[in-house]
Amino acid sequence: xPFTVKRIRDDKARGDGRRVLVERLxxxxxxxxxxxxxxxxxxxxxxxxxxxxxGHEPARWEAFRRRYFAELETREEAAAAVAELRRLxxxxxxxxxxxxxxxxxxxxxxxxxxxDQLEG
Length: 120
Description:
single chain; 120 residues; alpha/beta; 4-stranded parallel beta sheet; 45% helix
């Protein structure tokens, strides 16, 4: 499936396809107009407890991924949001938008990996 990740503060591009915010909280300083979203799937974001535990600590990345993937599979609302993303992905490119300054170790990157694994 054609999933990509991008910071929400980066400019919208023609190749973005559907733009989906995958954060639980709205990013500070970003207007809804500037975000140019097609969807905001709060339920696919990690729980607040997991997000705070991770704290973007590189040493916790692999454990975060395992815990986050478990949440995506066991929390009903998260599983429904994953199903929605997969449905959107079958229709074309989907850009998973994140707000973190950390571009490599964030929930959108982990979510893309999870979606890619589901598709084999």
